[in-house]
Design brief:
3 domains; alpha+beta; four-stranded mixed beta sheet; CBS-domain
Length: about 280
Protein backbone atom coordinates (compact mmCIF):
# COMPACT_ATOMS: atom_id res chain seq x y z
CA UNK A 1 0.00 0.00 0.00
CA UNK A 2 1.50 3.32 -1.03
CA UNK A 3 1.97 6.15 1.42
CA UNK A 4 -0.05 9.10 0.15
CA UNK A 5 0.73 11.40 3.06
CA UNK A 6 3.57 13.06 1.14
CA UNK A 7 1.25 14.22 -1.64
CA UNK A 8 -1.31 15.54 0.83
CA UNK A 9 1.19 17.35 3.08
CA UNK A 10 1.21 21.15 2.81
CA UNK A 11 3.89 22.45 0.46
CA UNK A 12 6.65 24.65 1.86
CA UNK A 13 6.53 28.33 0.89
CA UNK A 14 9.60 27.75 -1.32
CA UNK A 15 7.90 24.93 -3.23
CA UNK A 16 4.74 26.97 -3.62
CA UNK A 17 6.69 29.98 -4.81
CA UNK A 18 8.66 27.87 -7.32
CA UNK A 19 5.38 26.50 -8.66
CA UNK A 20 4.09 30.05 -8.90
CA UNK A 21 7.01 31.20 -11.09
CA UNK A 22 5.39 30.30 -14.42
CA UNK A 23 6.33 31.75 -16.83
CA UNK A 24 9.84 32.45 -15.56
CA UNK A 25 10.66 36.13 -14.91
CA UNK A 26 13.08 37.74 -17.34
CA UNK A 27 14.53 40.38 -15.01
CA UNK A 28 14.71 41.36 -11.35
CA UNK A 29 11.80 43.79 -11.60
CA UNK A 30 9.50 41.02 -12.84
CA UNK A 31 10.72 38.69 -10.09
CA UNK A 32 9.99 41.34 -7.45
CA UNK A 33 6.51 41.79 -8.88
CA UNK A 34 5.91 38.03 -8.67
CA UNK A 35 7.13 37.90 -5.07
CA UNK A 36 4.87 40.84 -4.18
CA UNK A 37 1.91 39.14 -5.85
CA UNK A 38 2.71 35.89 -4.03
CA UNK A 39 2.59 37.77 -0.74
CA UNK A 40 -0.78 39.29 -1.56
CA UNK A 41 -2.17 35.84 -2.43
CA UNK A 42 -0.93 34.30 0.81
CA UNK A 43 1.67 32.05 -0.82
CA UNK A 44 4.31 33.87 1.22
CA UNK A 45 3.94 35.22 4.73
CA UNK A 46 4.82 38.88 5.25
CA UNK A 47 8.25 38.23 6.80
CA UNK A 48 9.33 35.79 4.06
CA UNK A 49 8.21 38.26 1.42
CA UNK A 50 10.18 41.09 3.06
CA UNK A 51 13.37 39.02 3.30
CA UNK A 52 13.18 37.87 -0.33
CA UNK A 53 12.52 41.39 -1.59
CA UNK A 54 15.35 42.81 0.54
CA UNK A 55 17.74 40.12 -0.71
CA UNK A 56 16.95 41.00 -4.31
CA UNK A 57 17.40 44.73 -3.70
CA UNK A 58 20.78 44.22 -2.00
CA UNK A 59 22.30 43.40 -5.40
CA UNK A 60 21.58 46.99 -6.49
CA UNK A 61 23.00 48.64 -3.36
CA UNK A 62 26.59 49.87 -3.14
CA UNK A 63 28.92 49.78 -0.16
CA UNK A 64 29.01 53.59 0.06
CA UNK A 65 25.30 53.55 0.96
CA UNK A 66 25.78 51.62 4.22
CA UNK A 67 29.40 52.27 5.29
CA UNK A 68 30.44 54.16 8.39
CA UNK A 69 32.06 57.31 6.96
CA UNK A 70 35.69 58.03 7.70
CA UNK A 71 34.90 60.91 10.03
CA UNK A 72 33.10 58.51 12.39
CA UNK A 73 35.77 55.80 12.49
CA UNK A 74 37.48 55.12 15.82
CA UNK A 75 40.95 53.92 14.87
CA UNK A 76 44.24 53.09 16.59
CA UNK A 77 47.76 53.98 15.48
CA UNK A 78 50.27 51.17 15.08
CA UNK A 79 52.75 52.79 17.48
CA UNK A 80 50.21 52.99 20.33
CA UNK A 81 50.65 51.41 23.74
CA UNK A 82 47.77 49.75 25.63
CA UNK A 83 47.45 52.76 27.93
CA UNK A 84 46.72 54.85 24.83
CA UNK A 85 43.77 52.86 23.51
CA UNK A 86 42.31 50.44 26.09
CA UNK A 87 40.07 53.11 27.64
CA UNK A 88 38.84 54.13 24.20
CA UNK A 89 38.06 50.52 23.31
CA UNK A 90 36.00 50.04 26.47
CA UNK A 91 34.17 53.35 26.14
CA UNK A 92 33.23 52.81 22.49
CA UNK A 93 31.98 49.21 23.10
CA UNK A 94 33.08 48.27 19.58
CA UNK A 95 34.54 44.82 19.00
CA UNK A 96 36.88 45.64 16.08
CA UNK A 97 39.17 48.58 15.39
CA UNK A 98 41.19 49.42 12.27
CA UNK A 99 44.87 50.03 13.02
CA UNK A 100 46.50 52.71 10.88
CA UNK A 101 50.13 53.52 10.25
CA UNK A 102 51.43 56.24 12.54
CA UNK A 103 52.81 58.23 9.60
CA UNK A 104 50.04 57.55 7.06
CA UNK A 105 46.38 57.71 7.97
CA UNK A 106 45.42 55.99 4.70
CA UNK A 107 47.55 52.88 5.33
CA UNK A 108 45.65 50.14 7.16
CA UNK A 109 48.01 47.81 9.04
CA UNK A 110 45.33 45.40 10.28
CA UNK A 111 42.26 44.93 12.46
CA UNK A 112 42.46 44.75 16.24
CA UNK A 113 39.83 42.65 18.03
CA UNK A 114 38.90 43.78 21.50
CA UNK A 115 38.79 40.18 22.73
CA UNK A 116 42.43 39.70 21.77
CA UNK A 117 43.38 42.31 24.34
CA UNK A 118 42.38 39.87 27.07
CA UNK A 119 45.81 38.38 26.52
CA UNK A 120 47.25 41.52 28.12
CA UNK A 121 45.87 40.54 31.51
CA UNK A 122 48.80 39.65 33.70
CA UNK A 123 51.32 40.85 31.11
CA UNK A 124 54.20 42.35 33.11
CA UNK A 125 57.57 43.67 32.10
CA UNK A 126 57.19 42.26 28.60
CA UNK A 127 57.72 44.27 25.48
CA UNK A 128 54.39 45.04 23.80
CA UNK A 129 54.13 45.03 20.01
CA UNK A 130 50.67 45.88 18.72
CA UNK A 131 51.35 44.13 15.40
CA UNK A 132 51.49 40.79 17.22
CA UNK A 133 47.77 41.13 17.98
CA UNK A 134 46.47 42.22 14.58
CA UNK A 135 44.19 40.31 12.23
CA UNK A 136 44.43 40.81 8.44
CA UNK A 137 42.38 43.63 6.96
CA UNK A 138 40.89 43.65 3.49
CA UNK A 139 39.65 46.55 1.41
CA UNK A 140 36.62 46.98 -0.83
CA UNK A 141 35.85 49.86 -3.20
CA UNK A 142 32.98 52.08 -2.17
CA UNK A 143 31.31 51.29 -5.50
CA UNK A 144 31.18 47.52 -4.81
CA UNK A 145 27.70 45.99 -4.61
CA UNK A 146 26.51 44.36 -1.40
CA UNK A 147 26.08 40.89 -2.88
CA UNK A 148 29.78 40.99 -3.81
CA UNK A 149 30.62 42.25 -0.31
CA UNK A 150 28.78 39.37 1.34
CA UNK A 151 30.71 36.88 -0.79
CA UNK A 152 33.97 38.59 0.23
CA UNK A 153 33.07 38.34 3.91
CA UNK A 154 32.34 34.64 3.51
CA UNK A 155 35.44 33.86 1.45
CA UNK A 156 37.79 35.74 3.77
CA UNK A 157 35.96 34.69 6.95
CA UNK A 158 36.01 38.29 8.10
CA UNK A 159 33.49 40.62 9.72
CA UNK A 160 34.94 44.04 8.81
CA UNK A 161 36.24 45.64 5.62
CA UNK A 162 37.93 48.95 4.96
CA UNK A 163 36.19 50.96 2.25
CA UNK A 164 38.49 52.82 -0.14
CA UNK A 165 37.75 55.57 -2.65
CA UNK A 166 38.94 55.84 -6.24
CA UNK A 167 42.25 57.35 -5.10
CA UNK A 168 43.02 54.56 -2.63
CA UNK A 169 42.23 56.64 0.43
CA UNK A 170 40.08 55.41 3.29
CA UNK A 171 36.44 56.33 2.70
CA UNK A 172 34.91 54.41 5.61
CA UNK A 173 34.29 51.04 7.22
CA UNK A 174 31.67 48.38 6.63
CA UNK A 175 30.85 45.32 8.71
CA UNK A 176 29.09 42.05 8.07
CA UNK A 177 26.34 43.22 10.43
CA UNK A 178 25.83 46.38 8.33
CA UNK A 179 25.28 44.25 5.22
CA UNK A 180 23.03 41.66 6.86
CA UNK A 181 20.83 44.39 8.34
CA UNK A 182 19.88 45.40 4.81
CA UNK A 183 18.23 41.97 4.48
CA UNK A 184 17.02 41.08 7.96
CA UNK A 185 16.55 44.52 9.52
CA UNK A 186 18.25 45.91 12.63
CA UNK A 187 20.38 43.40 14.51
CA UNK A 188 20.74 44.30 18.18
CA UNK A 189 23.39 42.87 20.47
CA UNK A 190 24.05 43.17 24.19
CA UNK A 191 25.63 46.59 23.68
CA UNK A 192 22.66 48.07 21.84
CA UNK A 193 20.18 50.21 23.71
CA UNK A 194 16.60 50.98 22.81
CA UNK A 195 17.35 54.61 23.66
CA UNK A 196 18.82 56.30 20.59
CA UNK A 197 20.97 58.54 22.80
CA UNK A 198 22.93 55.44 23.87
CA UNK A 199 24.61 55.48 20.45
CA UNK A 200 26.07 58.89 21.25
CA UNK A 201 26.20 59.27 25.02
CA UNK A 202 26.99 56.94 27.93
CA UNK A 203 26.96 57.79 31.63
CA UNK A 204 29.93 56.82 33.81
CA UNK A 205 29.99 55.71 37.44
CA UNK A 206 31.44 59.06 38.59
CA UNK A 207 28.54 60.96 37.06
CA UNK A 208 30.44 62.17 34.01
CA UNK A 209 29.50 61.17 30.47
CA UNK A 210 31.45 59.82 27.51
CA UNK A 211 30.12 61.42 24.34
CA UNK A 212 30.86 60.79 20.67
CA UNK A 213 32.08 64.02 19.06
CA UNK A 214 29.67 63.42 16.16
CA UNK A 215 26.68 63.67 18.51
CA UNK A 216 24.19 66.09 16.90
CA UNK A 217 23.86 69.28 18.93
CA UNK A 218 20.09 68.80 19.13
CA UNK A 219 20.62 65.32 20.66
CA UNK A 220 23.19 66.75 23.10
CA UNK A 221 20.85 69.57 24.16
CA UNK A 222 17.94 67.18 24.65
CA UNK A 223 19.99 64.81 26.80
CA UNK A 224 21.77 67.40 28.97
CA UNK A 225 19.04 70.05 28.86
CA UNK A 226 21.63 72.50 27.53
CA UNK A 227 21.20 75.29 25.02
CA UNK A 228 24.11 75.15 22.58
CA UNK A 229 23.37 76.78 19.22
CA UNK A 230 23.20 74.57 16.13
CA UNK A 231 23.13 77.41 13.62
CA UNK A 232 26.84 77.23 12.73
CA UNK A 233 27.64 73.59 13.57
CA UNK A 234 25.78 70.28 13.48
CA UNK A 235 27.77 68.32 16.08
CA UNK A 236 29.07 68.98 19.58
CA UNK A 237 32.56 68.24 18.28
CA UNK A 238 32.21 71.12 15.84
CA UNK A 239 31.52 73.55 18.66
CA UNK A 240 34.50 72.29 20.68
CA UNK A 241 36.89 72.57 17.71
CA UNK A 242 35.63 76.09 17.06
CA UNK A 243 36.37 77.12 20.65
CA UNK A 244 39.86 75.59 20.63
CA UNK A 245 40.57 77.11 17.17
CA UNK A 246 42.95 74.18 16.61
CA UNK A 247 43.04 70.42 16.99
CA UNK A 248 43.30 69.74 20.74
CA UNK A 249 45.43 67.04 22.32
CA UNK A 250 44.17 64.01 24.24
CA UNK A 251 43.31 64.87 27.89
CA UNK A 252 43.12 68.57 27.04
CA UNK A 253 40.03 70.31 28.47
CA UNK A 254 37.94 73.37 27.76
CA UNK A 255 35.05 74.91 29.74
CA UNK A 256 31.98 76.14 27.88
CA UNK A 257 29.15 77.73 29.86
CA UNK A 258 28.48 75.16 32.62
CA UNK A 259 30.23 72.22 30.98
CA UNK A 260 33.78 70.91 30.90
CA UNK A 261 34.82 68.98 27.81
CA UNK A 262 37.90 66.73 27.96
CA UNK A 263 39.31 65.13 24.82
CA UNK A 264 39.52 61.33 25.18
CA UNK A 265 40.25 60.32 21.58
CA UNK A 266 41.57 62.34 18.64
CA UNK A 267 43.92 62.11 15.69
CA UNK A 268 45.61 64.59 13.38
CA UNK A 269 42.33 65.45 11.67
CA UNK A 270 39.53 65.38 14.20
CA UNK A 271 38.37 64.61 17.72
CA UNK A 272 36.20 61.53 18.14
CA UNK A 273 35.39 60.94 21.83
CA UNK A 274 34.99 63.47 24.65
CA UNK A 275 34.27 63.43 28.37
CA UNK A 276 31.54 65.79 29.55
CA UNK A 277 31.22 67.05 33.14
CA UNK A 278 28.83 69.57 34.67
CA UNK A 279 30.59 72.40 36.48
CA UNK A 280 29.36 75.18 38.70
Amino acid sequence: MSDERGSDAPKSWLNRLTHFLTPEPENRAELLAIVHNAGQRGILDAESQRIIESTLRVADMQVREIMVPRAQIISIRDNSEPKDFLAIMMESAHSRFPVLAADNSDEVIGILLAKDMLRLIGLKNERFNLKDYLRPAFCVPESAHLDRLLREFKDKQSHMAVVVDEYGGIAGLVTLEDALEQIFGDIHDEHDDADEDAHWISEQEDGSHVVQAITPITEFNDYFESDFSHEDFETIGGIILSEFERLPCINESIDLINWRFTILAADLRMISVIKVEKIA
